[in-house]
UniProtKB/TrEMBL annotation:
Biological source species: Scomber scombrus (Atlantic mackerel)
Protein name: long-chain-fatty-acid--CoA ligase
UniProt-listed Pfam families: AMP-binding
Ranges annotated as spanning the membrane: none
Catalytic reaction equation(s): a long-chain fatty acid + ATP + CoA = a long-chain fatty acyl-CoA + AMP + diphosphate; tetracosanoate + ATP + CoA = tetracosanoyl-CoA + AMP + diphosphate; a very long-chain fatty acid + ATP + CoA = a very long-chain fatty acyl-CoA + AMP + diphosphate
Length: 670
């Protein structure tokens, strides 16, 4: 046992043994010498013997307690220190409630721009943009928004831009005049894009120069609704699309009145971030100042400092990159390297070039990096930490084997959710950690879930049942003053649909995450699966009902059931659609391909089609997905006709055993 102890434990053990041996040795000497006792011996026999005995017992007690703690509560001190860190940050937010002034993420940025004006804030495409640069350019845009666009405090403005410094300048400029900003997913198209404007009530749209074509087909509808369209260009081919870049140089870089951005409530909305759900179309999650500030503390909680350089290859329209990435960089006063689009081949060269120490990820990103050819330079970098979510155990281990001992910090939490788990221990395969103290602050439960019926299991009294440790259950988070749920913009029914009421007692309310999780006996929490009508592919949530509604517009399709299937070596699930062809019509792979590519984002496209004669239903008259998911897409075990998306032939072609094997081996890319 001694050989397995830590250095501190060995030191304590050594001190204990030394003191005890010294004590016993002198007692023996005193007995043998008898009458030759002197003053020194008498002192040892009396006072020092008692002192050494007390010291020996004390050290032995500390040693025993330390060993007991390591054996029975191995993560106690790390949990305790991490919880203190979280509480310390939370208390700062609580103090805002006692004052009439909330220090927002934007306020924090302005403070940093005054404190460290010349420090690089964003490095993009090899160019350095300091805190002062972004501050002054966002001031110019804020003045344009006031004087030319005529925006007012409280207006909502939609932002459709790819990753670039001007995304931040527009975002901050709008926030400085008191506008809330709706981040639009650059992959959504036509009908879904129009829906986004309607549900958040945007008065204007700011669009990136490289995304003007996304307005084709919907620009007349936007103008009919009196929505101003402004492009980050110097000139526009569309006469009804206004331009911003040609006005920036003449605009003042002086701050607009601070009163415009000031807020007295942490619960005031500042952003709308769109998330896929089960209602068929994207939902605008309400992001308050409270949520923004909590997310901005993520890097800090994991031990990041102002000296870190953070690599952000994720899209800014997602909360991970904008709230945790940019917000976290601002909170620290650090530097971030912003990438327009993730590139596996450029990733490590970028990290070495810019001395990156922390990077953001999703599981799929790490898998792409693991698939890169091994080189002698793989472990030559300064990256010490990755922060993200969705990292599979096998990819996690392979990543650390390939690129060195990088600490991977998993974070679990949906954009609109009221619960967050953080894996501060770094245990492979877990998304977070809980303990007695965490449960005191954040009330959550895992309840039994019937995968076949697609509903929570209820007891005889109609209440949910908690699962035992180690069992998989549906994760629910209690809605309370400490963990509020702000819901979605638009219809109140959207918000209500995400809540479960009367879960354990009459009158309670819980946020339904839609995730199946498991918590082991040590308190580590692992993600198991998604339930219902949503799955993840390419790092994005796919709403099956939205895909089904889009496919249902094809004339030869009578009924369609969309779900996700697992593919070895890939994160998440690839889209698959079981469908019934209308009587008298035939399946047309070319027509379906054209429709899917035109109207659905890349990550939401159905890769596989299964033709059926009858669509199975559950006992609650919902489409049966469980059996379809379980059967997968293997043509040798499925008698129904199967088709696969083929970009070379621009069609859905029959899925043969040969193609199936090529998909499994990775020769055929999805």
């Amino acid at each position: 046992m001694f050989c397995s102890l830590t250095c501190m434990e060995k030191s304590l053990a050594y001190i204990t043994l030394t003191v005890s041996v010294y004590h016993l040795k002198h007692v023996t000497v005193n007995v043998e010498n008898g009458s030759s006792l002197n003053l020194s011996s008498l002192l040892l026999t009396a006072d020092m013997t008692a002192s050494l005995g007390w010291l020996s017992a004390l050290v032995a007690g500390f040693f025993s307690a330390h060993v007991l703690q390591k054996l029975c509560f191995p993560y106690f001190w790390r949990d305790f220190v991490f919880l203190l860190t979280v509480i310390r940050y939370g208390m700062k937010l609580e103090l805002f409630k006692l004052t009439s002034r909330v220090c927002t993420v934007l306020d924090r940025f302005i403070q940093q721009a005054q404190r460290i004006p010349d420090k690089p804030f964003v490095i993009y495409d090899g160019n350095i943009h300091t805190y002062r640069d972004i501050e002054q350019r966002s001031n110019r845009l804020a003045n344009i928004f006031l004087d030319r666009v005529k925006l007012k405090k409280g207006d909502c403005v939609a932002l459709l831009m790819n990753n670039e410094p001007d995304f931040l300048c527009v975002w901050f400029g709008l926030a400085k005049v008191g506008c809330s900003v709706a981040f639009l997913n650059t992959n959504i198209k036509s009908r879904s894009l129009l829906h986004c404007f309607n549900c958040c009530g945007a008065k204007a749209l700011i669009v990136g120069a490289d995304l003007i074509e996304c307005l084709d087909g919907i620009l007349p509808s936007l103008l009919e609704d009196n929505i101003q369209v402004w492009a980050m260009k110097s000139q526009s081919e569309h006469t009804q699309v206004n331009t911003l870049l040609d006005k920036i140089d003449a605009a003042s870089d002086q701050p607009v009145p601070a009163a415009l951005r000031a807020t007295t409530s942490l619960k005031a909305p500042t952003l709308y971030i769109f998330t896929s759900g089960t209602t068929g179309l994207p939902k605008a999650a309400v992001i308050t100042h409270l949520q923004s500030l909590k997310a901005a503390g993520g890097f800090w909680a994991f031990g990041a400092t102002a000296d870190d350089v953070i690599y952000i290859p994720l899209p800014l329209y997602h909360s991970a990159a904008s709230l945790i990435g940019i917000g976290g960089t601002i909170e620290l006063g650090a530097t971030c390297v912003l990438k327009k689009k993730f590139s596996a081949s450029q990733f490590w060269n970028d990290c070495r070039k810019h001395h990156v120490t922390i990077f953001q990820y999703i599981g799929e990103l790490c898998r792409y990096l693991c698939n890169q050819p091994k080189t002698d330079m793989d472990k030559v970098h300064k990256v010490r930490m990755g922060v993200g979510n969705g990292l599979r155990q096998d990819v996690w281990r392979e990543f650390q084997s390939h690129y060195g001992d990088v600490k991977m910090c998993e974070v679990y939490g949906s954009t609109e959710g009221n619960l967050c788990f953080m894996n501060h221990i770094g245990k492979i395969g877990t998304v977070g950690r809980s303990n007695f103290f965490y449960r005191l602050l954040f009330k959550y439960d895992l309840v039994k879930y019937d995968m076949i019926k697609d509903v929570p299991v209820k007891n005889q009294y109609g209440f949910c049942q908690r699962v035992r440790k180690g069992e998989t259950g549906l994760l629910l988070s209690k809605v309370s003053a400490l963990s509020p749920f702000f819901g979605y913009a638009g219809s109140k029914q959207l918000t209500e649909n995400k809540l479960m009421r009367n879960v354990f007692v009459k009158g309670d309310a819980y946020f339904n995450t839609g995730d199946l999780m498991a918590e082991d006996h040590e308190g580590f929490i692992s993600f198991r699966d998604r339930v219902g009508d949503t799955f993840r592919w390419k790092g994005e949530n796919v709403a099956t009902t939205e895909v089904a509604e889009t496919l249902g517009l094809v004339d030869f399709i009578q009924e369609v059931n969309v779900y996700g299937v697992e593919i070895p070596g890939h994160e998440g699930r690839a889209g698959m659609a079981a469908m019934i062809v209308r009587p008298g019509l035939t399946f047309d792979g070319n027509k379906l391909f054209e429709h899917v590519v035109r109207d659905l984002p890349v990550y939401a496209r159905a890769h596989f089609i299964r033709l059926q004669e009858v669509m199975e239903m559950t006992s609650t008259f919902k489409q049966q997905k469980f059996q379809l998911v379980q059967s997968g897409f293997n043509p040798s075990t499925i008698s129904d006709p199967l088709y696969v998306l083929d970009h070379l032939q621009k069609s859905y072609i029959p899925l043969t055993d040969s193609i199936y094997q090529n998909i499994l081996s990775g020769e055929r890319k999805l």
